[in-house]
Amino acid sequence: MIHVVLHFIVPAFVAFAFYRSGWLSAFLVMIATLLVDVDHMLADPIYDPQRCSIGFHPLHTVPAIVVYVALFAVPLFWPRKGSVQGLHYTARVLHLAGLGLLVHMALDWLDCFV
User: Fold this and answer.
1) Taking the complete model, does pTM exceed 0.85, yes or no?
2) Which residues span the domain enclosing 43?
3) Which of 5, 18, 76, 108 is exposed most, by the fewest CB atoms within 10 A?
4) 59 backbone dihedrals φ, ψ, rounded to 5°
5) 3-state secondary structure the chain
6) How many Cα atoms are found within 13 Å in the side-chain-facing hemisphere of 87?
C-alpha cells in the first residue's frame, strides 16, 4: 500500500520542487505515466507482492527504460527560452512523461529490495 501512495507523493514532490511555476500540470503528466502499469495485465497472477516488476513486465525492462531516459533527456536539447519551463509544449510533455516514467521505474526498483 505504501508503494502505491509513493507513486503519487514522489511525483508531487518532484513537480513542486523542480517545476514550481507549473507544478500542477507537471504533476498531472507524471501521474498519467502510471498507465505504464497496464503491462501488469499480461502477468499471471496480475499482482504478486513478491515479484519484482523491473525486468519482468515488458514496459519495465531495460530497453523500455532506455526509451524513458531518451524521453526525459532529448527535449532538453531542443531550443527553449531559458529554463525547462521555457520548453515548447510538446517538448515539455515528453520531458515530464520521461521523468514520470523514470520516477515510476525507480520506485518499482526500490520495491524489489523490500
Assistant:
1) yes
2) 2-111
3) 5
4) -85, 10
5) CHHHHHHHHHHHHHHHHHCHHHHHHHHHHHHHHHHHHHHHHHCCCCCCCCCCCCCCCHHHCHHHHHHHHHHHHHHHHCCCCCCHHHCCHHHHHHHHHHHHHHHHHHHHHHHCCC
6) 20
Q: Which amino acid is at 67?
A: V
Rounded CA separation 103/92 (Å): 16
How many folded domains does the chain comprise? 1
Reading the block at residue 64, the C-alpha cell is 523500455
Closest residue by Cα to residue 6 from 111, 113, 114: 111
Residue 8 to residues 11, 31, 59, 90, 96: CA-CA distances in angstroms? 6, 7, 19, 23, 14
The 10s digit of each residue's pLDDT in 22-81 is: 999 999 999 999 999 999 999 988 888 888 999 999 999 999 999 999 999 998 887 766
One-letter amino acid identity for 82?
Answer: G
